[in-house]
Design a protein that fits this description.
Layout (H helix, E strand, L loop, with lengths): L2 H27 L11 H14 L13 H12 L4 H18 L11 H11 L3 H7 L15 H6 L20
Helix pairs in contact: 1-3, 2-3, 4-5, 4-6
Length: 174
C-alpha cells in the first residue's frame, strides 16, 4: 500500500473511531455500555486489556486512552472484515491462555495486570499474539488535524525522535 493511500485510509477511519470513542465516553458517564460495530463487548474488553498491556499508559496515553479498541472495531467493520475471523481466533486463543494460567478466570480482561503480563509472555511467540500486536512497516508520518492527533500522541511510544504541534490554535504551518 502506498504512503498516500495509507494516509487517506487512516484519515477516513480515524475520525469515525474518535467519534465512537467520544460517544462511548458519554454513554459510560450515563451508565450505559458503549456501542461496537464488529466487536462484542467482551471482545472489546479483552482486546483493550491486551492492548493496554502491550502499550501501557506511562508519560504518554495508553492504548485504550487513545481509542485503539474503537480503531480496531472500525477497521474490522469497514476496511478489513475478512480479518475478523482471525481476530476472533486470536482472542479465543488469548482467553484459553488466560484460563490455562488462571483456571478460574472468566476472560483475559478479568485477570490482574500481573496475570495478564504472565499470560501474554506465555503466548508471545504464537501467531495469535503477533496478530494482536501487529504493526505495519515502520514509517514516519506527519498527520494533521483531529485525525492526526493519534500520530502526535503516540509518536514517542513507537520510537519517533520528534513530533510537532502548534502552541496556538490556527497557527499551524503545514
Amino acid at each position: 500500500c502506498s504512503a498516500p493511500a495509507s494516509t487517506a485510509w487512516l484519515t477516513t477511519l480515524w475520525p469515525s473511531a474518535i467519534a465512537d470513542a467520544h460517544e462511548a465516553a458519554h454513554a459510560a458517564s450515563q451508565g450505559q455500555a458503549p456501542h461496537y460495530r464488529a466487536l462484542t463487548a467482551q471482545q472489546a474488553e479483552d482486546f483493550g486489556a491486551a492492548a493496554d498491556r502491550i502499550m501501557p499508559r506511562d508519560d504518554a496515553p495508553g492504548a485504550r486512552d487513545v481509542g485503539v479498541v474503537f480503531f480496531a472495531d472500525h477497521l474490522l467493520a469497514s476496511f478489513a472484515p475478512a480479518r475478523k475471523p482471525a481476530f476472533d481466533q486470536a482472542l479465543v486463543s488469548l482467553n484459553e491462555a488466560a484460563r490455562k494460567h488462571v483456571p478460574t478466570a472468566s476472560s483475559f480482561a478479568s485477570l490482574t495486570p500481573a496475570e495478564q503480563d504472565e499470560t501474554l509472555r506465555s503466548i508471545e511467540t504464537t501467531e495469535a499474539f503477533e496478530l494482536l500486536r501487529h504493526r505495519a512497516k515502520p514509517m514516519i508520518a506527519l498527520c494533521m488535524g483531529e485525525a492526526g492527533l493519534i500520530s502526535r500522541i503516540l509518536a514517542k511510544k513507537f520510537g519517533a525522535f520528534l513530533t510537532f504541534a502548534s502552541l496556538e490554535s490556527g497557527t499551524g504551518t503545514a
